[in-house]
Amino acid sequence: MTVNIDQALEAFYRDVDAVGLAPLWTVTGELLTPTPRPKAVPWLWSARTYRPLAERAIGLIPVERGGERRVLSLRNPGLGGRPYAAGTLWGAVQCLGGRETAPAHRHTPGAIRFVLEGEGVFTTVNGDACDMRPGDLVLTPAWAWHDHSSTTDGSMLWFDGLDLPMIEALDGIFFEPHPATSQPVDGERNRSVAAYGASSGRFADEQVTGALDPKPSPLLIYRWNDTAAELDRRAAERPDAPTVAVEFANPRSGASVLPTLACGVRRLIAGRSTTPCRRSGNQIFVVHRGVGHSVIDEQRFDWEPGDMFVVPSWSAVEHHAAENADLFGISDAPVLRALGIYREETLAAAQAVTSTFVPQQGVL
Question: pTM for this one?
Answer without folding.
Answer: 0.97
